[in-house]
Design goal:
This protein is an all-beta fold and 124 residues long. It is 0% helix and 48% strand.
Length: 124
């Protein structure tokens, strides 16, 4: 088990940027693939982006491809989601998650540990 804490959420205007961070408690951070998910009120949780254990491979949902960038710093046990060109449809609670599976998992069921979430609100 690893504890995850998101930070960096807030309110921005459409077209703006935000940088989300996910801090992990485990020193074995590099043993986990990591991912970001988001959930808006009344909607199911959806996949946003994922990154492999080494950080060499990434995958993005079509809705954020070209606008968001996922990265990680294994020495600092931290994962980052850089969000650019935000629009109101990006408004949601964003969660980071850790997975023991290989590759770049995109299914929520492949992730065993989750952060508490951080609110992102984009105004038009």
């Amino acid at each position: 088990q690893v504890q995850l804490v998101e930070s960096g959420g807030g309110l921005v205007q459409a077209g703006g940027s935000l940088r989300l961070s996910c801090a992990a408690s485990a020193r074995t951070f590099s043993s986990y693939a990591m991912g970001w998910f988001r959930q808006a009120p009344g909607k199911e949780r959806e996949f946003v982006a994922a990154i492999s254990r080494s950080g060499d491979t990434t995958y993005y949902a079509d809705s954020v491809k070209g606008r968001f960038t996922i990265s990680r710093d294994n020495a600092k046990s931290t994962m980052i989601l850089q969000m650019n060109s935000l629009n109101p449809e990006d408004t949601a609670v964003y969660f980071c998650a850790a997975s023991t599976t290989l590759g770049v998992p995109i299914r929520a069921t492949r992730y065993g540990d989750w952060g508490q979430g951080t609110q992102v609100t984009v105004s038009s």
